[in-house]
Amino acid sequence: MTRVVLVDDHQMFRSGVKAELGDSVEIVGEAGDVDEAVEVIKATQPDVVLLDVHLPGGGGVEVLRRVTGAAGRRSGDGASPPETRFLALSVSDAAEDVIGVVRGGARGYVTKTISGPELTRAIGRVAEGDAVFSPRLAGFVLDAFAAADVPSIDPEFDQLTQREREVLRLIARGYAYKEIAKELFISVKTVETHVSSVLRKLQLSNRHELSRWAAARRLV
Questions:
Q1: DSSP letter, residue 83
Q2: CATH code at position 166
Q3: Do 53 and 132 sit in the same domain of this protein?
Q4: Domain of 106?
Q5: What is the DSSP string of 148-187?
Q6: Domain check: are 49 and 141 in the same one?
Q7: Distances (CA, A) of 134 to 22, 25, 92, 185
Q8: Interval 126-166: pLDDT, tens
Q9: pTM check: above 0.90
């Protein structure tokens, strides 16, 4: 049976995933932030890590960096333990999120709209070494790498936190505050706080200017 560590900062979501997976895999550990994830993964050495992209402490990319670096897989020192593979499981389908974790070493990326049976199959395939992506993302990933069509480094964008970036993208796509709150499992007041912070950091006045800013940078 495939041994899995589940990394997501929402306890209720982790409980839901465990219920959906049932006895098809063995959940050997859970974590809600970067530090906790690194500790659990190193301690349990699972076959697959289900990894959320947006986590307190630096996000999924930071988990990948610290775990793969600690394992010595990139240094070629021959000291790596049996390989743990990573499958990103996120609400986000944004370019920088997908490409970031794939470049960081993830073997796949699926969104949280995936069904339990589909997720079970995806875990199995990743454990066997296959690359697995949600249907809409597969072509996108291939095109992005082929054309090196990845959003360029932008000092303004880089100053935003992971959560602020996610709120920014959803605002730019026309989501209402209540819809964003539901999508990200946060309160409407928290959404308002993030939007205010984004507008302040980018020196914009309203959500319409924010939408134009995001569209100009191909973030939506």
A1: P
A2: 1.10.10.10
A3: yes
A4: 3-147
A5: T--PPP-HHHHTS-HHHHHHHHHHHTT--HHHHHHHHT--
A6: yes
A7: 21, 20, 12, 21
A8: 999 888 888 667 665 665 555 444 444 567 777 888 888 88
A9: no
